[in-house]
C-alpha cells in the first residue's frame, strides 16, 4: 500500500472526518484536531498527508492511523506517510520494539491504579493528558515521551501496587526506557496549554504545574539542558535541592545549557520548607502553586536579544563545578549562583 495523499478535496475530506470523528476541538493550517485542548487525534485535509488521520496517543498500536477514504483496518503504520525515526533520532531496532510493546500493552488510566496514584498526589484534573497510560503487567503508570512529530521514543514507568501506591518492594520504583541513546534533545512527556513553556524534571511535578497553571509543560525525565523546544522563552521548574549538592549542580547546568539555545530562561524553585512543586500542590492546592509561582522563587538566568554566548556559558559551568566540588562558596557569590 502506497503512502500517497488522498485525491479528495479538503471539503470532502472534512465531511468524512465529521462523519467519523464528530466536530473537532480546533481547526487551522489544513488540519482538524480532536481531544482535550486540541489533543492527540489529528486529521490532515491538505498537503502530503491529506486524508490521513493520526492518533498519537496510540502510536505503536495497530489502530493509530488510517486513511479517511478507506475502510478502517485497511492501512498499517508502515503504509502511512510518516517515519517515526525521522528528524535526527536514530532508533535501535530492539529497543524501539521494547518501547512499542509497552505502548501497545498500555490502556487509558481512568479507573486504574495509575488514576488512584495520581489523585493521591493531588493531580485531580480529568481527563489526564493522552500521554498518561496504565500498564497491567508489570503494574505501572506509563508516561510517554514523544517527539514533536508525536512518535513515542522514550517511556517512564512508575511501578505501583494494586491500591495505587508506589511499589516499595521493588529495588527501583521508577524506570526509564528509550528507543535509542540520543533521545534527550528531542523527546519529552508533553502536556498542552497556553503561555510560556515549562520544562519539568519528573511527571508528578509536570502534571502539578500543568493542572495549576494551564501552561504547556514538557517533562524531560531528568534535569536535562540539551532539550530543544523551538521557543524563545522557557521556564525550568526545579526542586529546592541543597545548595552545592550534585542535584543543585545538575539544575544549574541544565539552566545554562538551555540559555545557550533560548533568548530567555527562568528557573522556578519553591522554598526549601515547601518541598517540590507536587508537595506544594498536595498541601496548598492549585491556588498555592499559582501563588508561589509568582513569588521570588521565579529567577531569571538569561534574558537578551540572543542566546547566551559560549564563553559566558563555559564560565558559568566552571563556577558551578567549583561550588559542587567544594560544597561551599563565598557569600558575595551566593546570590548570583543561586540564579540558575
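Q: What amino acid sequence fits the structure above?
A:
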Amino acid at each position: 500500500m502506497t503512502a500517497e495523499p488522498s485525491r479528495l478535496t479538503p471539503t470532502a475530506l472534512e465531511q468524512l472526518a465529521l462523519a467519523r470523528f464528530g466536530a473537532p476541538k480546533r481547526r487551522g493550517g489544513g488540519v482538524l484536531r480532536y481531544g482535550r485542548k486540541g489533543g492527540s487525534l489529528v486529521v490532515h485535509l491538505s498537503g502530503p498527508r491529506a486524508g490521513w488521520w493520526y492518533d498519537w496517543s496510540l502510536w505503536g498500536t495497530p489502530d493509530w492511523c488510517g486513511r479517511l477514504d478507506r475502510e478502517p483496518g485497511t492501512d498499517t503504520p508502515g503504509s502511512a506517510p510518516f517515519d517515526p525515526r525521522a528528524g535526527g533520532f536514530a532508533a535501535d531496532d530492539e529497543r524501539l520494539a521494547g518501547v512499542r510493546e509497552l505502548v501497545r500493552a498500555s490502556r487509558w488510566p481512568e479507573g486504574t491504579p495509575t488514576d488512584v496514584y495520581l489523585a493521591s498526589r493531588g493531580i485531580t484534573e480529568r481527563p489526564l493528558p493522552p500521554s498518561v497510560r496504565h500498564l497491567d503487567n508489570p503494574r505501572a503508570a506509563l508516561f510517554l515521551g514523544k517527539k514533536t512529530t508525536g512518535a513515542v521514543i522514550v517511556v517512564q514507568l512508575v511501578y505501583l501496587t494494586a491500591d495505587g501506591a508506589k511499589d516499595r518492594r521493588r529495588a527501583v520504583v521508577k524506570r526509564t526506557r528509550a528507543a535509542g541513546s540520543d533521545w534527550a534533545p528531542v523527546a519529552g512527556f508533553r502536556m498542552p496549554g497556553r503561555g510560556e513553556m515549562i520544562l519539568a524534571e519528573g511527571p508528578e511535578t509536570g502534571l502539578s504545574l500543568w493542572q495549576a497553571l494551564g501552561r504547556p509543560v514538557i517533562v524531560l525525565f531528568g534535569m536535562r539542558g540539551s532539550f530543544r523546544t523551538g521557543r524563545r522563552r522557557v521556564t525550568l521548574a526545579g526542586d529546592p535541592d541543597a545548595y552545592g549538592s550534585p542535584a543543585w549542580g545538575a539544575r544549574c547546568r541544565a539552566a545554562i545549557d538551555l540559555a545557550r539555545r533560548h533568548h530567555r530562561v527562568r528557573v522556578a524553585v519553591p522554598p526549601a520548607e515547601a518541598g517540590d512543586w507536587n508537595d506544594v500542590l498536595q498541601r496548598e492546592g492549585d491556588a498555592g502553586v499559582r501563588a508561589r509561582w509568582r513569588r521570588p522563587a521565579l529567577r531569571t538566568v538569561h534574558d537578551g536579544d540572543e542566546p547566551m554566548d559560549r564563553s559566558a556559558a563555559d564560565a558559568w559551568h566552571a563556577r558551578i563545578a567549583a561550588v559542587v566540588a567544594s560544597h561551599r562558596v563565598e557569600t558575595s557569590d551566593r546570590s548570583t549562583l543561586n540564579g540558575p
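Q: And what stands out in the fold?
A: The first strand starts at residue 26 and ends at 28.
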